[in-house]
User: Fold this.
Amino acid sequence: MGVRFSGELAYEVHAPNASLDAACLALRKAGVEHGLQLFGARAAGAMRMEKGFLHWKADLITEFDPFETGLNRFVKLEKGDFIGREALLKRQAEGARKKLVTLQIGASHAPAHGGASLMQDGRYDHLRRRGQRVGMNLAYAFAGPGLAYMGSPGQLGLCGDLVAATAIARSPCDPGFERFWG
Assistant:
């Protein structure tokens, strides 16, 4: 038992390949009275995003450092020498070029897609993902300083239209993480 990548209470069930179908059917039957429903990988991705969980090689990419992705709490520059320390000290002194922000998209007709353009003051940044459990169309973006604070407005290219995009708190589902860790 544990909190899964989706931010929800979850269990992992291990069964031999030959028993997978029977195990799935038994779990689904037992879950009917509890409202158990199947969901796919995109729904799990949306739930982890609504919880504010970041994914390696989707949201955490090598083009951006820990200061830009909001992971600076894990960087212990005072612990002594380590590979990359000098580069991180330099980046910290220069300040972040971009910052990973969560955006609420002002449209419901289509989800935001990774790689879409985010525009503010004539400058473009790029989106990383999407979400839906909290009734919002969400996206992550590495935004320039002008869009890197809560409430800052921008626009997003979505299905040929420019729609509003507003920076919001990292975890709109459970901002204080009280649900499982409080």
Summary: Residues 20-31 form the longest helix (12 residues).
